[in-house]
Amino acid sequence: MPKQPPRPDVTDGAVRTGPRGRPRSAEADCAILEATRAALVELGWSKLTMGDVATRAKVAKTTLYRRWAGKSELVVDAVAHLFDELELPDLGSLTADVECVVLRFAALLERPETRTALMAVVAEGTRDEALRGRIRSAIVDRQKGLVLQGRARAQARGELPYEDDPATAARNADLIFDVIAGAVVHRTLVSAEPVDAAWARRFTRLLLSGLASLRN
């Protein structure tokens, strides 16, 4: 009788062709990040532990450590997940687009889980250079994409000139992002003042036209 080839490794009716181990679950990730934000609001940074997050998310603590090296990285990703909800609308003009995204950004910062998590990682980042780098890559650099998208739309409409030098374009995008994010974060989280439609309108006028535009 001819020798039979070895049977494939079958689990739950599926042939396993790749390496062993359970694939990363997006659903589990979302549950973990949500549990992290809830724990931060309730416990604060100092009392938050990986074990508490695991209990809330109904996963093993080892599951957390397979994904994140520690609490700092986990909280940064929990914040980044919230900021990924931001979208830049296309309302037909640069002025309308900026006003809308400013209001959406402020509304996101008003949520307790966003406010608590963001302030916690920023405070910790002042003492941890590696954490600052993770904040830049996971939050800041990803959100700069909205600036690039808005600028490209405005250039296509003829509202902004095209920039021939990539280095200059990158510096300008950084400055635009810093001005918008800095102003909204400061007003919402530091000054604790509302960002309403009137404020967004005046801020956008200042951003696009300069100080002289505020005389009227």
Strand order of the largest sheet: 1-2
Global shape? elongated
Q: Give the topology string: H per helix, E per strand.
A: EEHHHHHHHHH
Secondary-structure-based class equals mainly alpha
Count of extended strands: 2
> Which residues sit in consecutive blocks of at least 5 with pLDDT less than 50?
1-22
Fraction of helical residues: 55-70%
Using only C-alpha atoms, the radius of gyration works out to: 23 Å
- Relative strand content: under 5%
Q: Report the total helices.
A: 9
Q: Could you explain the architecture of this structure?
A:
- The chain starts with 9 loop residues before the first strand and ends in a 7-residue tail after the last helix.
- A two-stranded antiparallel ribbon has the order 1-2.
- The chain has 216 residues and is an all-alpha fold.
- Helices cover 67% and strands 2% of the residues.
- Strand 1 (10-11) and strand 2 form a beta hairpin.
- The chain is built from 9 helices and 2 strands, in the order E-E-H-H-H-H-H-H-H-H-H.
- The model is unreliable at 1-22 (pLDDT under 50).
